[in-house]
């Protein structure tokens, strides 16, 4: 029995060392290239937040970011949300509430619904769809019913929120979609 356990441990250790050596090959960044920065979610119009102010049910609730990037909050009025992370917005609202109304305001801000994505062009059901964290272009196309028979499946046109023009990108499995993006699948040239 102990011989089997020792053999199993030896095999497991060898596999772990082998996998550790392989992971270095997979995770390397090309020389001179900076690693990709993680995506930081910033609030924008059409986002919906749940703001829970501890022991204050009169102001606790769901709030939408309006087209100007503000949230209308009881007692405070309009407070800027656009461009801020959830943490930054929470800190600004806490500071405002403590300065004006509550001695020791404690609140939690959660994202209830993010702004939608738009999938257009050569897909079976073009339209507006809910954003899901980690969504790729291929996932967005699948949500829109897949490619039509005329679709160019090699490139995609993407316009990120705040950008004036579309950018052409190769259609690969790792192209990430951000909330508010417009994804357009072009017709292929025969």
Automatic annotation (TrEMBL):
Domain Soluble ligand binding: 117-158
Domain Polysaccharide export protein N-terminal: 36-111
MF-aspect GO terms: polysaccharide transmembrane transporter activity
Alphabetized UniProt keyword annotations: Signal
Signal peptide feature range: 1-27
PANTHER family xref list: POLYSACCHARIDE EXPORT PROTEIN GFCE-RELATED
Protein name as it appears in the record: Polysaccharide biosynthesis protein
Record organism: Sphingomonas aurantiaca
């Amino acid at each position: 029995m102990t011989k089997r356990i020792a053999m199993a441990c030896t095999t497991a250790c060898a596999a772990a060392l082998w996998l550790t050596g392989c992971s270095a090959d997979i995770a390397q960044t090309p020389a001179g290239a900076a690693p990709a920065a993680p995506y930081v979610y910033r609030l924008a119009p059409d986002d919906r937040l749940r703001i829970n102010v501890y022991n204050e049910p009169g102001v606790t609730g769901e709030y939408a970011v309006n087209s100007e990037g503000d949230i209308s909050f009881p007692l405070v009025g309009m407070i800027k949300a656009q461009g801020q992370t959830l943490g930054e917005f929470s800190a600004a609202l806490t500071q405002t509430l403590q300065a004006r109304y509550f001695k020791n305001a404690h609140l939690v801000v959660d994202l209830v619904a993010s702004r939608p994505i738009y999938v257009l062009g050569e897909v079976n059901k073009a339209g507006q769809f809910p954003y899901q964290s980690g969504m790729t272009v291929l996932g967005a196309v699948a949500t829109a019913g897949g490619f039509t028979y005329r679709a160019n499946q090699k490139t995609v046109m993407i316009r990120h929120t705040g950008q004036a023009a579309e950018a052409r990108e190769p259609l690969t499995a790792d192209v990430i979609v951000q909330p508010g993006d417009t994804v357009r699948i072009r017709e292929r040239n025969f």
